[in-house]
Amino acid sequence: MKIRDLGELADRNLREALLRNFLTTLGIAVGVASLVAMLSLGVGLQNLANQRLSHSGLFDAIFVAPRTNFSAFGRPARTNEEPSASGAIAPPRPLDEDARVAIERLPNVNEVYPEIRFPTEVQFKGNPYSTVVAGVPMSARSGGAFDAINGAFFSGPAADETILQIDFARELSAQPDTLLGQQVVLTYAERQPLPPEPGKGSSAGQASSRGAADAGMSPGFSVVPREENLRIVGIVETQPAAGFGGATGRVLIPLQLAEKLRAAQTNDFREILGGTPGKANYQSLTVRVTGPSAVKDVEDAIKGMGYSTFSLLDATDNLRIVFAVFDLLLGIFGSLALVVASLGIINTLVMAILERRREIGVLKALGAADRDIRRLFFVEAGVMGLLGGIFGVALGWTIGRAMNFGANLYLHRRSLPATNLATVPWWLVAAAIAFSVGVSLAAGIYPASRAAQLDPVEALRYE
């Protein structure tokens, strides 16, 4: 029997019992729609997590910190650091300005900036408020923390401006919006290197000074109280992501301004003990690379220079595993409805056998082989699966749009940015239709085999 003849017979048979076949196809469509809706939710949540993390800049960031080194006190340095790609473990080095310049020269590195954060006091309308100030690079403008900023970002890398975190802004005023454009006074302790003591030019003193320098110890510094007037230009709900230190500041200022202030930080005692005289020493550095694919090579190079590194690649791998399991569970629950719909296909085709026994007998009497009868029922099952898959994908896409609309309406009422909660990619459309046809063909195996096994003489006698 030709394929064209099979198609015409299948089309005629499906239209003869139109209501029953329509209800069976509708059951398949509902099953496919539940599968598409659930998987689109999983895909949408995974894309949302990836976009937010990528937008935050954490995927292309490497956090660098100095290794602990107690050799100055007669103790061995830590040697449990993972080796670089070359297998060598470089000795610990101070994380100073020379190290920052050397890391900036590495291939695929966009920028390197230090983590500057210090506790201080802010005066507003004559009242003091204790808080923590943090320096923010200009590249953070595109970060997720500043998407919903109330006001504006810094006008320049060293502008005398500040962005307040919303909780601290509420401490300053019951109406945070009124703070925009007003001035605050930042009171901080400026670091100043100690000058050489007059009259201390003896050979013993010079030898002591040289010994401290040879040991890699900073001669120390003094602190001088300073004030800096800052204009409030913005207010943010969330704090930008931090590096090694954990928490960030509630008062944000441009990073170049923070470096220019030379404010005393919590790691200054470490610098006195193991720093390099006359050079800025950092508690940690953040390295921005060209993309996530370059993180591993740059991280190995920095480890080979004698520093500790950390990135979020391992965390993202675990996140992909979690979402894969989540998508699998959603797919299993969504497939249950499609399996139930396949029972409807079996029931419909078995009833068709009872109603069309005489027709099957005539076809066999005219020379139709068993495989032709089997193919006819397979074509009917496949057509129902194909139509059910197409309608199901359309229904699932509509359900996804409805979920997005409801979610965005909820977020809008809470002044949050809109997002796509459910996403239907092209591969999900193709997979859903293919799965629907496959399940339908599997459901048609028993009815097709039963119809092919009918005896033509008995079938012709059937009334």
Give the end-to-end Cα distance, rounded to a whole number of Å.
Answer: 26 Å
% residues in beta strands? 15-25%
Order of helices and strands: HHEHEEEEEHEHEEHHEHEHHHHHH
- Shape by Cα distribution: elongated
Largest sheet: 6 strands, mixed, barrel
Characterise this structure.
The chain is of the alpha+beta class. It is built from 14 helices and 11 strands. The strands form 2 sheets. Strands 3-4-9-6-8-7 form a 6-stranded mixed barrel. A 4-stranded antiparallel β-sheet has the order 2-10-1-11, covered by helices on one side. The radius of gyration is 35 Å and the shape is elongated. The two termini are 26 Å apart. Mean pLDDT is 74; it is low at 69-81, 201-218 and 243-247.
Q: How is the secondary structure organized here?
A:
Blueprint: H1 3-16, H2 18-55, E1 61-66, H3 97-104, E2 109-114, E3 117-124, E4 127-136, E5 150-151, E6 161-165, H4 166-172, E7 183-193, H5 203-214, E8 221-236, E9 251-254, H6 255-261, H7 268-274, E10 285-289, H8 295-304, E11 307-310, H9 313-355, H10 357-365, H11 370-413, H12 426-443, H13 445-452, H14 456-461
Parallel strand pairs: 4-9, 6-8
Antiparallel strand pairs: 1-10, 1-11, 2-10, 3-4, 3-7, 5-8, 6-9, 7-8
Helix pairs in contact: 1-11, 2-9, 2-11, 2-12, 9-12, 9-13, 11-12, 11-13
